[in-house]
# Entry
Amino acid sequence: MGIDAQLNKGVLEGCVLKLLEREFLFSGEIVERMRANGFADFSEGTLYPMLLRLEKEGCFEIKRVPSPNSPPKKYYKLSAAGRKRLEIFTRQWRALAQCIGNLFSGEDGNA
Amino acid sequence: MGIDAQLNKGVLEGCVLKLLEREFLFSGEIVERMRANGFADFSEGTLYPMLLRLEKEGCFEIKRVPSPNSPPKKYYKLSAAGRKRLEIFTRQWRALAQCIGNLFSGEDGNA
DNA sequence: GTCAGTTCCTTGCATAACAATGAACTAAGG
DNA sequence: CCTTAGTTCATTGTTATGCAAGGAACTGAC
# Structure
């Protein structure tokens, strides 16, 4: 099996999933949290397609809340499917981090 | 600045650069080492475009060695530019790993 | 009804990962 | 000399993420 190569690209998705594990958040809050956590350039152009993709796969519980100065805000939180996906990401990330850790600290990749 | 988003895709490249830091290796050996290090599905279809890309950017010192049963083997090892690129990757990887580490262990991303 | 502010969404481009395929070089056998 | 087999090198095309840019929709103020 090895590392799912898709993981190489899916890091941002994994982090967003993590943010929505226990809390309802809407887009503005997600962007804010991501930036505060070191993903300084994280943008809505990345977020919205991601949210729609995950929504289509049933990863969210969604709540629409009227807003005083805008269209209703769309709040997201993980569903059971979403938690499963987060779990898979977490496993994959640990595996990847270990592979790279091995390669970079010590034996230079010799078997 | 934050994390270079390109890093999300460039993990395999970083690992290949690491393998070639101090040693001349040709394609077959690179694939073998990558697989032995946990990237079990690593393939030549990924490797060759990567090597050509990096070669164009001057990241390699290259040695061609005749082979008894094939076209001459092409051995790669990092040039000064290659080592610089590896260094950048290493920094970026550490930053990314720390961001994710923060997010996943403990405070759930609250600021 | 128009305007400003905020939120939501779509479109299009760049690039890495990867499968699939083919070209090039050598040695061996007919 | 031609073909075949084995190995290495390279190209093409598809898919998916990241992201910039731009647009649509809803609300309150004037």
